[in-house]
Amino acid sequence: MSYVIRRTDSREWRQLRALRLEALRDSPTAFGTTYADAAALTDEVWRQQTASNSTSPTSATFVAATEDGRWVGMASSAPMDRIPGHANIHGVYVASAHRGQPAGPATRLMEAAIRWARDNTDAAWLTLGVHEDNRRAQAFYRRIGFVETGKVVPYVLDPSKKLYIMGYEGFRQTTA
User: Fold this and answer.
1) How many CB atoms lie within 10 A of CB 16?
2) Total domain count for the chain?
3) Higher per-residue confidence, 160 vs 1
4) What is the bridge-based pairing of β-strands 158-168 and 146-155?
5) Is residue 138 part of a domain?
6) What is the rounded distance in angstroms from the CA atom of residue 5 to the CA atom of residue 108?
7) pTM above the 0.85 mark?
8) DSSP 8-state symbol, 129
9) Is the N end or the C end of the chain the one with fewer CB atoms within 10 Å?
10) Residue 172: band (very low, low, confident or very high) from pLDDT cuts 50, 70, 90
C-alpha cells in the first residue's frame, strides 16, 4: 500500500481530533493524556492546536494517509521548552492494520518528524519517551536509530510506571 506523508493543514482539526481519539482508545498508555480528557476538549482548542502545528516555524504534526485519503498515522515534533537544546518527537501513532511494514507509515512519519526537528530547530538533541510496557515501540525506535539514554521519568498518568527516554543517534552530525 502507498501512503502520503504530509504536514497537517490548519483546516483539518476534525480529522486530527478523530485520529488522536482513535489513538487514545487503541493505545492509552502511549500518550500523556486520557481519552476522556482529549474528548472533552472544545472544538476551539482542537482548532488552535491544529493551526499551531500546521503553521509554527518550530513545531509540526505530520499525518500518514492512504491513497483514498484516510488518515492512518501521525507524529509530531517540537522543541522541549523546559529543556533547552532538546527537541522531542511525540504523539506517534499508526493504526494497527498499518503497523509493522518495512518503510511503512511509521518509519516515514518518523523520518518526517526527525527531518523537521533537524531543519527547523537549533536543538542539539532529539528525544522521545516510550512507556516501559510498550516493547514493540521500543524495538521500532531502536530499529530506526534511537538508543536508550539511561534516563527514566515517571509516566504522567500512572507514576508507578516509567517512560524510557530514547535519543536519536546522529541527530546533529558534525564533521571535523
Assistant:
1) 23
2) 1
3) 160
4) antiparallel
5) yes
6) 7
7) yes
8) E
9) C
10) confident
Q: What is the sign, positive or negative, of the torsion defined by CA atoms of 72, 5, 49, 146?
A: positive
pLDDT digits (tens, 9 = 90+) for 145-154: 999 999 999 9
**How would residue 173 be classed by pLDDT, with cut points 50, 70 and 90?**
low
Q: Identify residue 127 by its one-letter amino acid code.
A: T
User: Alpha helices of 40-78 — where are they, by DSSP H?
Assistant: 43-55
Which phi and psi angles does 84 have, rounded to 5°?
-55, 145
Domain range holding 146? Answer: 3-168
Cβ-in-10-Å burial (0-12, 13-18, 19+) of 154 comes to exposed
Rounded-to-integer distance, Cα 49 and Cα 52, Å:
5
Q: Cell digits for 15?
A: 480529522
Q: In what order do the strands lie in the sheet with 71-79?
A: 3-7, 60-66, 71-79, 86-94, 125-131, 158-168, 146-155
> Domain for residue 116, yes or no?
yes
Please name the helix (run of DSSP H) or strand (run of DSSP E) that holds residue 25, with its range, or none: helix 13-26
Is there a domain that residue 13 lies in? yes
176 within some domain: no
Q: Which domain CATH number covers 20?
A: 3.40.630.30
- 27-52: per-residue pLDDT in tens? 999 999 999 999 999 999 999 999 99
